[in-house]
Known about the structure:
With 252 residues, the chain is of the alpha/beta class. The protein has helices spanning 2-10, 52-59, 84-88, 106-117, 122-135, 151-163, 181-196, 208-214, 232-237, 242-251; strands at 14-23, 26-36, 41-45, 67-72, 75-76, 91-94, 169-173, 200-204, 217-222, 225-230. Bound molecules: adenosine-5'-diphosphate and magnesium ion. One of its GO terms (cellular component) is plasma membrane.
Amino acid sequence: MAADNLLQKDRPAIEVRNLCKNFGDNEVLKGIDFHVDQGEVVCVIGPSGSGKSTLLRCVNRLEEPTSGTVLVEGVDITDPETDLDKIRTRIGMVFQQFNLFPHLSVLRNLTLAQQRAKKRSKAEAEEIARKNLEKVGLGNRENAYPAQLSGGQQQRVAIARALSMNPDMMLFDEPTSALDPELVGDVLGVMRQLADEGMTMMVVTHEMGFAREVGDRVVFMDGGVVVEQGDPKEVLGNPQHARTQAFLSKVL
Ligand code: ADP
Ligand code: MG
């Protein structure tokens, strides 16, 4: 068991090899090689339509890869033998739209999946939920309903909900893109804190400041391929490819 755990920790959290994804005739991912090491924060940037969300969604098979390999902690998620539900409980997902259950209180939003998928008791689930609400700065809002919260608060609830499943890694797909500008900072602050605590993170984002300061690596995608990647300060400050330069000149 201990040896097994040790081996797992040596593997990348996420490893994608030659991943292709077509939607009909539309070749959206054209042979992507991509990885996220344990404890690493990888920010994925690139123009709209470049395939960032599709890549992220292939990691837990919300999209079915057309070809290629996706390994999560060394386990091939496209293998029919793989227990997908089990793998998915290790991966926390946060989307642009917060996807909270509108008819449930904040606390219930956080306990539901814990009780169903993790088989935790109500008391245990609530204890974990409260700890995570505290962590995202919403310890006093457990009885609120999503509609009573700001977008930034709702997104922090969504992060707390994902954390309550004790994931090994977190995937964020433009978590601040739907927020009013004054609410972005609080959400990025929570994400920065998670990164500081050593969480493994894949973050699709247009927040270049976050990518530069918090990212261990930046991956620039365009047209379904990885064009350039590396140290954030290098990629953002001294991009080597014309496509990266063109993109950054628009967003920076
Ligand atoms: P990004 O997140 O970088 O903006 P996406 O991965 O969302 O890019 O989309 C890449 C391309 O894939 C786009 O052309 C988009 O229209 C197409 N696409 C994404 N999801 C679907 C889908 N479910 N069905 C058909 N086409 C899709
Ligand atoms: Mg997207």
